[in-house]
Specification:
CATH class of one domain: Mainly Alpha
Largest sheet: 2 strands, antiparallel
Low-confidence stretches: 517-527, 529-581
CATH topology of one domain: Sodium/glucose cotransporter
Subcellular location: Presynaptic cell membrane
Helix content: 55-70%
Catalytic activity: choline(out) + n Na(+)(out) = choline(in) + n Na(+)(in)
Radius of gyration: 25 Å
Distance between the termini: 70 Å
Number of helices: 22
Shape: globular
Pfam family, one: SSF
CATH superfamily of one domain: Sodium/glucose cotransporter
Structural class: mainly alpha
Protein name: High affinity choline transporter 1
Family: Belongs to the sodium:solute symporter (SSF) (TC 2.A.21) family.
Length: 581
């Protein structure tokens, strides 16, 4: 394949434009807020992200390289087809559910990260445990899409994969480093526009290629790109669908946009707009997958064997751009894929660094850290996490397998914990730890084909593939999630009954989760509203009332009703209210 100088120039111009927008957004942030709001501006954009920019950035967070490449691949692969392209519907419903049930309580309580309610109710230890699957999900996702970008660029302009990955990662890290969420949000607007324009320009040219049959005709054939779901695969299909729909909610990248909106109502509207945007942005990827399935590759420069036999089905989108479109059109498509990758990668890197700086560094270790210190910790971790994701993209051979496993852990562990902490009264740290461990155990013992991890528990309907790896048809992921949820509730209420009834002595409450009213753990929770640790307006919706009390500030009032009634904390509360006047 010849080296395309024009393609290299096009990608350089695109990257420079994205970098310029990111730096401009950082400059705009620096000049629009006070020094005291700098940390909040980096993490949640000063809580003034409007509907237009917010809708674009939330949509672009989901419409990444994996989203459009994976959708095109699912439609193209024989035996799967559109019926197995679950991401567009699954993620759209995920955003709808997030807007209906989760966006309002999270935004109205004024949290800064997704982990705040966990640390508030369960304490810093549990917050640290939940940070692990959340970090793994964000990091492996960024690594997976960086890897996809490198392969895409190498297909179209024949440049070294490692160079393309490193340069792309450096651009994303640079503007995220200097501008935080503002830079990510404004570059998302440009990137989403490039995705929409680049893919839709490519579709008519690819569809009109002489080697491509009419996709309406091929849809009616036996091996149709519409696909089908066999009766034996129904439970597996449902398991994966619920993973996308429910597991797409508990991600910091999503809640960062929710918490950055100017009001709780806006947070809900942004979720609904993004759900519609995800469906619209999936259409060109679906058409490209259908075009690939309707192509006689022997009549193209690609030749035979076809992409499926060469095991290049995952690259069907860049292959269609390269071999079925004119050269200058394929460069538009390349820009679209690059934009999609960067729009998701920067969000993941910023999400991971935000959770670490606030929930691990500040609230767990350095509760009196200054504003400047937290900002520098965020900048350092943005670089470290970005470099780590880049290294995994270059070195790990099964980075997609790692991401599949980590995203499963987000669904199985964090989602049921989020349900409990927001909607189930009476849960405590003992139940949260038990649910965490049971969910983790059931997921790991179910196996993971992408990592060649054999199952230890064989559910009904399992079978061995050609590599002698056992595949589970039973919806064991949903089982693990439900087990984690009900275990949390059952163990929480059991622990509460045992301690409050006197069946267990108070000294055995080593986590200070039930009977220790003035424990250090509860004092750690109380730091969430101390004026020297957190800006008060972070915990208020939009217009904070001056008479806020400790009890009215937290999500779960029951967890702190005992604390508020104590004489020791009453004086501290009075001082806090006095200082806000």
């Amino acid at each position: 394949m010849p080296f395309h100088v024009e393609g290299l120039v096009a990608i350089i111009v695109f990257y420079l434009a994205i970098l310029f927008v990111g730096i401009w957004a950082a400059w705009k942030t620096k000049n629009s807020g006070s020094d005291g709001d700098r940390r909040e501006a980096i993490i949640v954009g000063g809580r003034d992200i409007g509907l237009l920019v917010g809708g674009f950035t939330m949509t672009a967070t989901w419409v990444g390289g994996g989203y459009i490449n994976g959708t095109a691949e699912a439609v193209y692969v024989p035996g799967y087809g559109l019926a197995w392209a679950q991401a567009p519907i699954g993620y759209s419903l995920s955003l709808v559910l997030g807007g209906l049930f989760f966006a309002k309580p999270m935004r109205s309580k004024g949290y800064v990260t997704m982990l705040d309610p966990f640390q508030q109710l369960y304490g810093k230890r549990m917050g640290g445990l939940l940070f692990i699957p959340a970090l793994m999900g964000e990091m492996f996702w960024a690594a997976a899409i960086f890897s996809a970008l490198g392969a895409t660029i190498s297909v179209i302009i024949d440049i070294d994969v490692n160079i393309s990955v490193i340069v792309s990662a450096l651009i994303a890290i640079m503007y995220t480093l200097v501008g935080g969420l503002y830079s990510v949000a404004y570059t998302d607007v440009v990137q989403l526009f490039c995705i929409f324009l680049g893919l839709w320009i490519s579709v008519p040219f690819a569809m009109s290629h002489p080697a491509v049959k009419n996709i309406g005709f091929t849809a009616a054939q036996n091996e149709s790109w519409l696909g089908s779901i066999e009766s034996l695969d129904v439970y597996s299909w449902l398991d994966n669908f619920f993973l996308l729909m429910l597991g797409g909610i508990p991600w910091q990248a999503y809640f960062q946009r929710v918490l950055s909106s100017s009001s709780a109502t806006y947070a809900q509207v942004l979720s609904f707009l993004a759900a519609f945007g995800c469906l619209v942005m999936a259409l060109p990827a679906i058409l490209i997958g259908a075009i690939g399935a309707s192509t006689d590759w022997n009549k193209t420069m690609y030749g035979l064997p076809d992409p499926t036999e060469r095991q290049e089905a995952d690259m069907i989108l860049p292959i269609v751009l390269q071999y079925l479109c004119p050269v200058y059109i394929s460069f538009f498509g390349l820009g679209a894929v690059s934009a999609a990758v960067m729009s998701s990668a920067d969000s993941s890197i910023l999400s991971a660094s935000s959770m670490f700086a606030r929930n691990i560094y500040q609230l767990s270790f350095r509760q009196n850290a200054s504003e400047r210190e937290i900002i520098w910790v965020m900048r350092i971790t943005i670089f470290v996490f970005g470099a780590a994701a880049t290294a995994m993209a270059l070195l790990a051979k099964s980075v997609y397998g790692l991401w599949y496993l980590s995203s499963d852990l987000v669904y199985i562990i964090i989602f049921p914990q989020l349900l409990c902490v927001l909607f189930i009264k009476g849960t405590n740290t003992y139940g949260a730890i038990a649910g965490y461990l049971f969910g983790l155990l059931l997921r790991i013992t179910g196996g993971e084909p992408y990592l060649y991890l054999q199952p230890l528990i064989f559910y009904p309907g399992y079978y061995a593939d050609k590599n002698h790896i056992y595949i589970q048809r039973f919806p064991f992921k949903a089982l693990a999630m439900l087990t984690s949820f009900f275990t949390n509730i059952a163990v929480s209420y059991l622990a509460k009954y045992l301690f409050e009834s006197g069946s267990l002595p108070p000294k055995l409450d080593f986590l200070d989760a039930v009977v220790a009213r003035y424990s250090q753990e509860n004092m750690d929770k109380a730091t969430l509203v101390k004026s020297d640790n957190i800006i008060l307006n972070e915990l208020a919706p939009v217009n904070p009332r001056r008479s806020l009390t400790l009890n009215s500030t937290f999500t779960n009032k029951e967890a702190f009703s005992d604390i508020d009634s104590s004489p020791e904390l009453s004086n501290a509360e009075d001082n806090l209210v006095t200082n806000t006047k």
